[in-house]
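Before going further, it is useful to explain how the protein records used in this thesis are read. An example of such a record is reproduced below.

***
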Amino acid sequence: MCVRKEMLAFITRVSSWNLKNIRSKNDALEVIYFEAGKQSKLIMPLVWLRDHCPSTKHYHFKTNQRKSNCTDLTSLAKIKNKDDVRVNREDSSMVIDWIDGHRSFYEIGDIIGKGKKKKEVAIEKVIDLWDAKTLKEVPRISKSKLSLPEFSVKLFKYGVVIIDDVEGTAEATEKLCKSLVPVHDTFFGQFWVFSNSASEDEPAYEDTAYGNEEIGPHTDGTYFNQTPGIQVFHCLTPAKTGGDTVVVDSFHCAKLLKNEFPEDFETLCNTKISHHYLEGDVPGSSIHSLSLEKPVIETDSFGNITQIRFNPYDRAPFACLSSSESSASDTIKFYEAYEKFAKICHDPENALTISLKPGSVIFIDNFRVLHSRTAFQGYRKMCGCYLSRDNFMAKARPFLRQITSTYYEW
């Protein structure tokens, strides 16, 4: 039986318990217990308890997977009478005899640890929101001293990190990236080498990234339903002039928006817009990627920001026109809110500027940090890729537990 000992240590005893009628007779259990010397109460639906039965009949411990297919949970989560539930106050254990004859054994501390609703914790308690004054420069790690724990913590906390002393080649960059996190593949390919003057061995797409004009702060891949998680750039040949990289903490910008214009913040959380990538002018021959109805600011159930999708350039036509005046009002409210957020994101006080050079590879959390490029003159050659954020978090979580212990499992 899997027991969370750290949770049990805080539970001295179960004070009392009784059956409750929530949606039908005797379909929940109310438990009064003491935790860290403080009395608490939880109501546990019987269907939830049946779903979390820790027996080998219902749970495969080697794979950490349930065995139930959930087609009969509610019908099996029933008891005949109160005597079918027995709680031992001394060791805080519980036995339930179900209507189908199955017997479940529970540790109260274990099931509380699994099921108790998480308390609201502000995201800024586990990551560092920043602007030009508070961060001053992008965190850096020398490749000779590179470790996955340090890389993970820096990228998680700040959303951006530079690895220095990398050989100034595409091959060395690709090898470095794949040693850290699996690649997130798209129709651009797994790894790119590109410039503003494409040769036969370089891809050329009808996108401003392949030109030399200024590009404002944005997140990449808003036109993908599965947004690329981590953006990687390595400047192999710097431009004669210009071509600096600018990064902005969009979570910090969104917090500024929320503090000063809370209604506009809510508008960007609740209004869903679409983004697209179109290439070519011959029907049927173009690359066409489309992401429908995603909010600019995505939040969790606590109101913490989890992702920003901000790309003024790749927005699809906003299908919002109707005969309704309220719809027109909502549309105007959206543009007002989007403009306010854009101004905050473009404020130089919220930006860090880096002149990328050969040997320095920048990693950017594309869910959080906006990147932009200043205009440049002359030839400029870059390489890079997208990395999987899910795979990064899977590898990073063991190193992040200490700083995320007060927050939900990112």
